[in-house]
Amino acid sequence: MLDALQPYFRMNISSDEIRALVKLQLQYNLDDKHWTIEKNYLEGHDSFKNTYSGSNAYVMSPDKESIANAKKKIKDVMNPPKKGKNKSNKNSDSEAEEPVD
Q1: Distance, CA of 87 to chain centre
Q2: Which run of H or of E encompasses 99?
Q3: Hey, which bits of 8-99 come out as E strands?
Q4: Cβ distance 95 to 83 under 8 Å?
Q5: How far apart are CA 32 and CA 13, in angstroms?
Q6: Neighbours of 59 (CB within 10 A)
Q7: 93 and 71 Cβ atoms separated by less than 8 Å
Q8: What is the full per-residue pLDDT of the chain (101 aa) written as tens digits?
Q9: Which residues contact 62 (CB under 8 A, 6 or more apart)?
Q10: What phi-psi label fits residue 2: left (phi over 0), alpha (psi between -120 and 50 degrees) or beta?
Q11: Which helix (H) or strand (E) holds 95?
């Protein structure tokens, strides 16, 4: 399955590491026996700015709100909100998928 999905995502984690995490998840039934899969992306706008090379080059100037949203999502993964709290932070930068059993 990972090989089939590979063209659709880029990560700095290897397929072997993902497989190990999935096996660990299934072995210990963490997170109430299901996963919630979300996707997120950072937004920005095109710019030409002076770079470290000393010349103007194409760069993406990041949108500060999308960065703040991504940071919050990372913090929520690292320190999950207490159960029973409603997640009211959903916005158009991410799409929650159905839980995967």
Answers
A1: 16
A2: none
A3: 38-40, 44-50, 56-62, 94-96
A4: no
A5: 24
A6: 14
A7: no
A8: 667 767 766 778 887 888 888 888 777 765 565 667 778 889 999 999 988 888 999 998 999 999 999 999 989 888 877 766 555 444 444 444 444 44
A9: 42, 43, 44
A10: alpha
A11: strand 94-96
Which residue bears the tokens 């979300």? 38
Q: What are the tokens at 101?
A: 């059993």
Containing H/E element for 28? helix 15-28
pTM given for the model: 0.46
Instruction: Report CA torsion sign: 38, 33, 28, 76.
Output: positive
- Asked whether 2 and 19 are in contact (CB, 8 A), the reply is yes
* Token code pair at residue 23: 């096996």
Tokens of 94: 């991410």
